[in-house]
Write a structure and sequence with these properties.
It is a single chain. This protein is an alpha+beta fold. About 25% of the residues lie in helices and about 50% in strands. It is built from three helices and seven strands. A seven-stranded antiparallel sheet has the order 1-7-6-5-4-3-2, covered by helices on one side. Helix 1 packs across helix 3 and helix 2 packs across helix 3. The N and C termini lie far apart (about 35 Å).
């Protein structure tokens, strides 16, 4: 399942990179994220709880940075393992920053998800709607985090 999102913000690209490259900041933007723990320089463990329809699922996420081109692009590969349920998710996410001009940046997010197990057995429409909702919420929270840490430039 492919999910894409993008937004524009009047903050210089370099300032945004400083905020989003901090895994503890990103953890604040992920819906249902309970904790983020650094395993090594490129690997993080997160605990996330997600509710889909009447099913509440808790996941352990292992995220690994597989590509990094500071300050423009970061690619992560994440495996989600269900805690107490038989569901797994693998996810590849690319976060790309484009300087629109000196004081404005486009933030583009592309994710590819593969869901198996109990959660995947829900109807495809419900599952897709939930994942799109989570992606949209993450995008909005990411923008809010950037605005909180960086002073947007007045137009």
């Amino acid at each position: 399942m492919k999910i894409t999102s993008k937004f524009y913000i009047t903050v210089p690209l370099a300032e945004i990179w400083e905020v989003i490259f901090n895994p503890y900041n990103i953890g604040k933007t992920i819906p249902g994220c309970e904790s983020v723990e650094l395993i090594d320089d490129n690997t993080y463990l997160s605990l996330v709880t997600i509710k889909v329809a009447n099913i509440k699922a808790r996941y352990k996420l292992i995220s690994k940075i597989v590509e990094q081109y500071s300050p423009f692009r970061i690619v992560t590969y994440t495996t989600w393992e269900g805690i107490g349920i038989t569901s797994k998710v693998s996810q590849s996410t690319t976060l790309q920053l484009y300087a629109s001009n000196y004081d404005s940046t486009e933030v583009a997010i592309d994710s590819e998800l593969n869901v198996t197990g109990t959660i995947a057995n829900l109807t495809a429409r419900i599952m897709r709607a939930k994942i799109e909702s989570i992606a949209e919420e993450w995008s909005q929270r990411l923008k809010a985090l950037i605005e909180e840490h960086c002073q947007p430039i007045e137009c």
